[in-house]
Design brief:
Elements (H helix, E strand, L loop, with lengths): L16 H25 L4 H10 L17 H12 L3 H10 L2 H5 L4 H7 L7 E14 L2 E11 L7 E10 L2 E2 L10 E6 L5 E3 L13 E11 L3 E2 L23 H20 L13 H33 L6 H29 L11 H11 L8 H10 L12
Parallel strand pairs: 1-3
Antiparallel strand pairs: 1-2, 2-7, 3-4, 3-5, 5-8, 6-7
Helix pairs in contact: 1-2, 1-3, 3-4, 3-7, 4-7, 7-8, 7-9, 7-10, 8-9, 9-10, 9-11
């Protein structure tokens, strides 16, 4: 589903990081009022997509050479965080759709400009190589079934991770890896999209399954994460597309905490009649949640800033710096889940009524996003091995 570009509320041409963040914060208030509708429809409504597009979020990583704002990783994460204070599903789709600028840096410039003629082009798709790409003259014939296509109901381009085969046998990569992993780029209408997204939370992300059989994809419409073509900080490390992810749980937790703080201003304990603002169990919980959220947020932004400084100096991030960004992501997810869970319990019975309180949706959303692979405990296992002298895999989206 493609939206007419004229449907955007504001012109996005020439906007900078400060303006994108300002628009994201303004959009959050509107999104908060649309959250119930987004959740019920299990995808972003057209006007919500238009609102996101109007903020400039989809162009955040587009190169300055094209007239794009080319925000830093920290700036992009702050924008996603702001959107998440309004609605987590919208923020998740914004985070996914904003990868367009990163993907464009792995393609020949002329091809990228053809595929991304509009800086506000939104992408979606599952990147891990679960599909099969058989090499043929001029490109590939791809087949497969992919999952978790967040934003697939409104994207302009759809990606699909594949293993490459030649004459039925795995084709080695140029760097010596026995299996070549390539990401294919096509149109969403080239795939069959399956209405599979019936979930606990993040319902509005529309993260449906999709499949195709024997689809031809030209060679130039595919890329490898190991071979960026554009010089630039956004493409200088394999984890580029993961850097903004912590913004979603951090923004959701911020919204939940602000909601309960506001609630506490007028609420009293039913049994004792004591105002919440004077109850130790309330004040202590609020203070601890603020402390935990601030710590998780600081870890995320400090690790992103350190990595960016290294990249800006023309150096590759050290193993410890790459581990730090991965651990900060993990911490953001799980700290946010713990915070929302504590606040849900604090609010009590009122929190279970989805029509009366946003707490129910926030708990469902943060629980679902914590099932993402980058929030999985295997990240801790891998990080510990690396900290004790192991090596970082060359081809992985976790690091």
């Amino acid at each position: 589903m493609k939206l007419p570009r004229g449907s955007a509320v504001h012109d996005t041409a020439g906007i900078d990081a400060a303006e994108i963040l300002s628009r994201a914060r303004a959009a959050a208030g509107i999104l908060r009022g649309r959250s119930e509708d987004i959740d019920r429809k299990r995808q972003l409504p057209d006007d919500v997509v238009a609102l996101l597009r109007s903020t400039g979020v989809f162009r955040m990583a587009m190169p300055a050479a094209w007239g794009g704002p080319e925000l830093t990783s920290a700036q992009q994460t702050e924008v996603i965080e702001a959107i998440a204070t309004g609605d987590a599903s919208a923020a998740w789709c914004a985070m996914i759709g904003a990868d367009s600028g990163i993907f464009s840096g792995y393609l020949e410039d002329s091809v990228a400009r053809e595929l991304f003629p509009d800086l506000d082009t939104a992408t979606a798709g599952f990147l891990n190589p679960v599909g099969r790409a058989e090499r043929v003259p001029g490109g590939y014939r791809i087949s497969g079934d992919w999952v978790f296509g967040s934003g697939i109901t409104h994207c302009d381009l759809l990606t699909a991770g594949c293993r490459v085969y030649r004459d039925g046998e795995p084709e080695p990569d140029a760097d010596g890896d026995p299996v070549q992993w390539r990401v294919m780029i096509a149109r969403p209408e080239d795939f069959e999209i399956h209405d599979s997204w019936y979930t606990t939370g993040l319902a509005g992300s529309g993260s449906r399954d999709y499949s195709t059989s024997d689809l031809f994809v030209p060679e130039e419409h595919s890329f490898s994460f190991s071979a960026p073509r554009r010089e630039g900080l956004l493409h200088a490390a394999p984890d580029a597309i993961l850097r903004t992810m912590p913004g979603v749980p951090l923004g959701l937790a911020r919204a939940a905490l602000d909601h309960v703080r506001e609630l506490a201003e007028s609420r009293t304990d039913r049994t004792s009649g004591t105002p919440w603002a004077r109850l130790e169990r309330v004040t202590r919980t609020i203070a601890e949640c603020e402390m935990d959220l601030s710590a998780a947020r600081s870890y995320v932004f400090a690790s992103l800033d350190e990595q960016w400084k290294r990249l800006a100096a023309g150096q590759r991030p050290t193993a410890d710096e790459r581990i730090a960004t991965a651990l900060a992501r993990y911490k953001a997810f799980h700290s946010s889940h713990a915070i929302v869970s504590r606040l849900f319990a604090l609010v009590g019975g009122a929190a279970i009524y989805s029509k009366r309180s946003p707490m129910d949706r926030w708990l469902r959303d943060v629980t679902t996003m914590c099932r993402h692979v980058d929030a999985g405990d295997q990240n801790l296992t891998s990080a510990g091995e690396l900290l004790l002298g192991g090596s970082i895999p060359q081809k992985t989206l976790l690091w």
